[in-house]
Design brief:
194 residues, mainly alpha, Four Helix Bundle (Hemerythrin (Met), subunit A), 6 helices, 77% helix, elongated
Length: 194
């Protein structure tokens, strides 16, 4: 008896692993934000924190980086090598700028007298934004690798070979869009739950 396999139901292992990682990260940040809401109910130890203005700017930068990542992915699929290189490099730079702004935001919090151990609300902001920072930093390192490879691995003469690695760029784009959307969620969560 022959077994019929339908390709449309097969998920590439890279995509499968990425989605497992994303589900895990969603659970982690859901736990963080749930704990934040529960602890906020304890008004004895809670003091409202004013988010640094730089966090608003970093949110805009990370949204722009997501648009740049999408443009890089579309360019890659079309075989537009020069555009892909440019957009991937710009995505990396925007990601690095986001990380820099997050650090500046933490310095601003310290200047406001908000320390990791002094205030429960401040502790949550540092821990949640710090956990997100680590996930973005991993993505920025990957973006650097993709940017370097765009100049060293792919040449105009082997555009067809690029199509064999589309899955890598797709997984990178998925991860980057996820951490971008996650920050937008966290930013508005902090704004609405001060």
């Amino acid at each position: 008896m022959a077994v019929s396999i339908h390709k449309r139901f097969i998920v590439h292992p890279y995509k499968f692993n990425m989605w497992i990682a994303i589900v895990s990260m969603v659970m982690i940040f859901a736990a963080f934000t749930s704990a934040y809401v529960v602890k906020k109910g304890d008004t004895k130890t809670w003091a409202d924190i004013q988010l640094p203005q730089i966090f608003t700017l970093s949110t805009i930068v990370i949204v722009i980086s997501s648009l740049l990542m999408h443009a890089a992915y579309v360019s890659f699929k079309k075989g537009a090598l020069e555009w892909y290189r440019g957009f991937m490099t710009l995505t990396f730079l925007a990601g690095a700028a986001f990380l820099s702004m997050q650090i500046q935001g933490w310095y601003t919090l310290v200047a406001q007298g908000v320390y990791l151990t002094d205030n429960v609300a401040g502790s949550f902001i540092y821990v949640i934004s710090g956990a997100h920072f680590l996930h973005v930093a991993g993505g920025v390192i990957a973006l650097l690798v993709f940017s370097i490879r765009s100049f060293t691995r792919y040449q105009a003469s082997n555009i067809e070979a690029m199509k064999d690695t589309t899955i890598n760029v797709e997984v990178m784009a998925t991860y980057w869009h996820f951490v971008d959307i996650l920050w937008v969620y966290l930013f508005f969560f902090f704004m609405l739950n001060r």
